[in-house]
């Protein structure tokens, strides 16, 4: 969130005064979104997250488009910039104070993606245990950053907070790009909805998990930002490519070498969470007939959605090699937040159409409406702020419309193509040792 505003228009020290306002707004916005998805997750008990909610509320075309953009560029872009962050924190300490070579950063990022893909292909239990372990590592790293910053704050080191809440420098055109960076940091509240069918007692545990994690993340991230502001000037924050490393060299000289490792493991945890959740969306989409049947299959022994996980790997590697971190954020965020807004709009429409449908968790109407309107506003304004990246994102989303009408609504592919396609699917099924789901879980 601290570097968000710099992505829009260059790194000037005055830009940082915007972040205090943005940080508070982002925390409120993501909290409202998390509550909306808690209601969606308890109303619709299928896995698949965004895809399922759009399918149930707005129909098959928006759901297919969400599936299309998720695996065409949203998930590869998200995984790519997390991988780049992982590679930067691994490589940067070895080259400090010089600039680390981008090629080496991307190579280490690819190794991180490869490790996560291997874990998620090998075992569901191993992937979940890896996620729990890396989450504890992340919490430990955050505490390690928070403690010296808070101690310094109590000792009176407050000069970097002067005029920290002035908002007169905010320009409307830069807000969406700043929010996209900050919203990514607070993102993740919808990943649990991807695996609803694998959650025990989802009506209780989904809202409980979302609310508890929402509060925890808000507290920890606010304190981390306070720690950064206490020990570093706005200029240092904006100039640093690895803020935690700069902070550690300033405030944690005794254990400074451990911070990059902990932050890199934290990035690996975020990467693992994405690869654990997103393939379930593809799995459900294939099960509903919106994607080739091979992707609705699981490994006969390991019970992992192997084809769905493997599909992501080459896409992520390609985007990681060709992309730059802030371009990737802006590129992916337009479609991601557009469809989140559509999902919550669909929730409101579904409430109106089926007022008597049981909803174990129900978010107040004003929160849902406000969140939906703000999301549409930010998405619309981003077309003006960054027309190139958001325009490309919009265009790629629309390419799914003819694909839907040609391959899903009416299957117009030539007979030879269909025969070749079915033959390839059978060969892949034998090669990967995968089969259709036998036990209905929804």
UniProtKB/TrEMBL annotation:
Superkingdom, taxonomy of origin: Eukaryota
InterPro entries referenced in this protein's UniProt entry, alphabetically: AA/rel_permease1, AminoAcid_Transporter
Bilayer-spanning residue ranges: 72-91, 103-124, 136-154, 174-194, 206-231, 251-271, 304-322, 361-384
Keywords, alphabetical: Membrane, Transmembrane, Transmembrane helix
Protein name: Si:ch73-352p4.8
Any Pfam family: AA_permease_2
This protein's GO CC annotations: membrane
Membrane topology reported for the UniProt record: Multi-pass membrane protein
GO-annotated biological processes: amino acid transmembrane transport
Localization of this protein: Membrane
A GO MF term: L-amino acid transmembrane transporter activity
